[in-house]
Model the fold of this input.
Amino acid sequence: MSSKFGKKERLFGYSIVLPYLAYTAIFWGYPFVWMVVLAFTKWNYFSKPKFIGLQNFLRILTDSTVLRIALNTLNFLAYLIPMVLTASLLFALALTKVRFGKTFIMLSFLVANVSSGVAYSLLFSNLFSINGPINRLLDDLFGITIPWFSNPQLAVFSICLIITWKFIGYYGLILYASLLSIPQSLYEAAELDGATKSQIFWKITLPLLNPSLITVTVLAVMLTFGIFTEPYLITGGGPMQRTITFLIYMYDTAFKRVDPSYATTVAIVTALVSYLLVMLIRKFFEKEVSFV
Amino acid sequence: MKRIFVLFLIAVLSLVSFAVKLTFWTAPNAFQEEFWKTVVAQWNKMRPDIQIEVQTIPAAGSSEEAILSAIAAGNAPDFSENIFSGFAAQLAEIGAIYPLDNFGTDFQRLVEARKMKNIMETWKIKGKYYVFPIYSNPMIFWWRGDILKSLGYNEPPRTYGEIYELSKKFADGKKKFTMQVISGRNWWDRWFDFITYYYAATGGKPYIDVEKRKVNFGDETGKAVVQFIYTMFQNKWTAVELGTNPFYNGTILAKITGPWEVNWAKETFPKVVPNIWFSAPPVPDNYPKDKPIYTFADTKGLVIYSTCKDKRAAFEFISWVFSNVQNDVLWIEKTQMPPAREDLTTNPAFAKFMNDKFFKAYASFVPYAVPPALTDKTIDIQQSMTTNLIEPLMYLKGKPEDILNKAVKEINKLLF
Done:
């Protein structure tokens, strides 16, 4: 079978895809293979990796910190998903009502998304510190001081609050685009049938937003498994280990305990768990949407 | 003449182009950086054949993390400072640092010249010397003398009981607290709270038995220490969060700190600094009055990495810096930290510093300052201390004795 392209065309084609293939091989393929190799070995950066079979995977099963982190992740999910979904949806709905300066508002919220994690973490850490401006205001107005980051349960909430702030613009934009795609005729028909605003929202808007809401939920789930900067810089994984996440544990294991092999094993298991969770969400909540 | 000049220029250029270039990482501390920049500039001028480039340890959670990340990425410097003994043991374990004994008599001569023969013994790792100790900072308590005076005190409280009495007079549990009892939740903060209190209460007994690989602090004195921490939190005489600069704004009366804070405090809070009083860490009520109180020594040193391009050249630089007592004088001027020398109080070169109340206070504690346990599990041990000991005490999660027993059990598991 002869190719419909000549040798020159084929070479040209290869030359175009080569940089991307090289990039993929160097920055994705090689680290991936190395990660899998490491998971089955013991290595300390200097010695030669020693094959230890499934020991690293078995160690995860008996590691109490991994169990603590799994519970923390569920805790983060329980706070973050409703917070980020509600806030983004409200932002998207509000945007549809705005007549002037829409681009400016969208950009203002997106700035949070592209800001440096280190910068805003330090900023929030100071804002919410025990004698920071937020607490001073609360003290002046209501005579209360809230231990935002030193109370074990409140610390999770506070970190979710910061992450929600960061992602309102990005997720809100996805939902906003989806809101715009809902045909006006559906709303008009509903209004003619005498549906209330609440009925329109629950029976039309929300069901038709399902694909976008699932997208945002999936993104938020993946985000939860990747939380690092905020708790690392603000709470250091505490108090009482309540904000320690898989990424913090991987980092600590690799760079404080000099155990990169176990760290990569945790990374592999975390990736598999998050993948399974995403698949489950899609299976149970994703629905086909038709506007006709 | 022209020909000689050209030849000279060629010689200089070839010397510079063939020079050994070594990278040296310093602690992320402006005053230490200043010291190293000054001495390295002198060295580079004098030795065009060995050029040293000074860089600050990159920003990270801690210097240890930055160094380990660099080792993992293959970007480790040739040599660096700011290495504590436990971290050195960890680096030696993985073969990342080079034993200084390998320089033979040159190394011995340097140790003698800097008067640090006994100090070196406390840094022996697996029978070898991997670290060149630079400084040894005793940790002492700073007290707000002005506030204490207004409460009728002429000197800081010494025992747990005296601190409780003071707390009843001063702390309100909302805006005023007696002292910072816990330094933070990073692993290294345990040096500056529990370990310091344990050293003080026991007369300097090691908290870990490194040989037997087991915890020592599960004893009666350990119980007294945890009871003290618990009591302070239970009565709200201290708090988890004390805000920014609580000592200087009068939220707390006392904090533990090292001499690295002196220059910053003098610059930032010039009105508070003259009113500072010093004391040893608090001790149990039954601690003998005539016995000296021990404290923790924050000791840091310098290491040469196994990947160093020219280890001999790095050692030549180190020898040049530390065999000259004037460089230690400069070190004190810049950093206020006592160099790891045994002749600190007898060498006339340091006499002028004894007029400084801060330096005098720290120097007086040098003989009673005990370094951390020399274990490669330091970070794990102290992270476990944070999770299983300090945080449960801070949040009053259980009886102090039960908390202590659980922590001892968990840490023994790590050591076994």
Summary: The two ends of chain B are 74 Å apart (CA to CA). The longest strand of chain B covers residues 295-304. The longest helix of chain B spans residues 30-46.
